[in-house]
UniProtKB/TrEMBL annotation:
PROSITE patterns: PROKAR_LIPOPROTEIN. It comes from Streptomyces beihaiensis. This is Lipoprotein. Residues 1-22 form the signal peptide. Residues 30-79, 402-424 are annotated as: Disordered. SUPFAM superfamilies: Glycoside hydrolase/deacetylase. The keyword Signal applies.
Length: 424
């Protein structure tokens, strides 16, 4: 991206995504806080800045445990699970729209934390572009360009502040290559490992590459902070997950799923985005701003001005319909993905602001990052999670939550060993 303009070519890169129901999906997917029993113990967080061990060139530093992270608690027998909602951002960077800083303010105002998937090339100046060697591409190529010095300065300030606020810094990798001819869907496990290493390296050396050595470091060890991602255009997930597991990642959110409780896949939590009722249509819609745009104004990022208010309302109401279906039903976490873009006059930004304000302030709702959701899932009794996965979309337990999660062993399915005899 240019120093103070829109992150370079983001729309052009995103436009490579499919324009169907799943939009940015690959062809494989076209279609008040409660406490329970304590989970695994965590070290008490150190005060920010009480420890400051510089790493490498000083672009990052170990400053102690991340502040503002809640301790995950195991559900008590019979306790109703909270309603988790995750708002996440692909390619997070601070440009002239100032949407990164905007959503930090929105999160604070609504008792929320979020996940920001930082693109590594947003920490790499154009003058150093050839340091990036994308798999199956020449050195210095990127479908979303690179950044200017001022853009790197502003993005680093926001990343630093976001982490200290309790938000998560994930990765959206680097060059955002989609489709044929070297797109991420064609990359091998080894190539994904190379892309991940480079994404880390640009974050770990931004001060040297941008000549900003007097700025404070990012207050985390990125090798340890980075535990999850979303792939460009939701492509290449299979080999990415294999690489990610080997590199110590804990979750992936590159899939498309129904509103059901997550399970592990290839050793990672499968925290896929979801399909929710699409207001005014008979089909469901993926929980991502880009996909709403594609289904409303096609490939035009600035469609009919007379329709923009309606389109924003339609997105907001669709997300709220999905939220209410889970909140009153199976309590499956709601996963939402977005971009720092003012498509269709910023109507999706308004829709998300209104959605966040509505859902994050309801009783028993926790608007959290993917890291916090993964921590909570890891703290639960595996038998409890298995029971939760038996609930269908919008399905609340018929016998009530107290009975459903009473801690007793579930009866074996009919016909299975140990099940009561039945008559045909």
């Amino acid at each position: 991206m240019a120093a103070t303009k829109k992150i370079a070519a983001g729309v052009a890169a995103v436009a490579a995504c499919a324009a169907a129901l799943a939009g940015c999906a690959s062809n494989d997917h076209a279609h008040a806080r409660e406490k329970g029993a304590p989970g695994p113990k965590k070290a008490a967080p150190a005060a920010p800045g009480s420890v400051n061990r510089l790493i490498g060139d000083g672009s990052t530093a170990y400053t102690g445990s991340q502040p503002h992270l809640p301790t995950p608690h195991r559900l008590r027998p019979g306790q109703k699970p909270p309603q988790f909602v995750v708002f996440s951002w692909d390619g997070a960077g601070e440009d002239s729209q100032k949407l990164f800083s905007h959503y930090r303010k929105v999160a604070k105002a609504n008792n929320a934390t979020m996940t920001y998937f930082l693109s590594g090339v947003y920490m790499l100046p154009k003058s150093k572009a050839k340091l990036y060697h994308a798999p199956q591409h020449a050195a210095g190529q990127s479908d979303i360009g690179f950044n200017g010095i001022e853009g790197i300065r502003n993005t680093a300030e926001q990343v630093r502040g976001a982490w200290l606020d309790g938000n998560e810094i994930g990765t959206h990798f680097n060059g955002h290559f989609c489709g044929k001819y070297g797109g991420v869907g064609q990359w091998s496990v080894a190539e994904w490992k190379s892309e991940i290493r480079q994404a880390k390296s640009f974050v770990k050396s931004w001060k040297t590459n941008a000549g900003l050595k007097n700025m404070p470091p990012l207050p985390f060890d990125y090798d340890k902070e980075l535990i999850g991602a979303r792939t460009p255009c939701l492509e290449g997930r299979k080999n990415f997950m294999r690489a990610a597991r080997q590199l110590g990642f804990r979750y992936d959110t590159s899939g498309v799923d129904d509103q059901v409780w997550p399970k592990k896949k290839h050793g990672l939590w499968d925290l896929s985005m979801q399909l929710v009722p699409f207001k005014g249509h008979s089909y469901e819609q993926l929980t991502m701003d880009y996909n709403f745009m594609i289904n409303q104004s096609g490939k035009s990022t600035q469609g009919d001005p007379g329709m923009r208010e309606y389109w924003g309302d339609q997105m907001r109401d669709s997300l709220l319909a999905g939220f209410n279906r889970a909140y009153k039903g199976n309590r499956a976490p709601l996963i939402i993905g977005n971009h720092f873009e003012s498509w269709n006059g910023g109507t999706y930004i308004r829709a998300l602001d209104e959605t966040i304000h509505t859902v994050c302030n309801k009783p028993e709702v926790r608007c959290v990052s993917f890291r916090q959701l993964a921590d909570w899932l890891d703290a639960q009794d595996p038998r409890t999670l298995k029971k939760l996965t038996t609930l269908g979309v919008g399905q609340a337990p018929k016998q009530g939550w107290a009975s459903f999660l009473d801690g007793k062993k579930a009866p074996a399915p009919k016909g299975a060993a140990g099940a009561p005899a039945t008559r045909s």
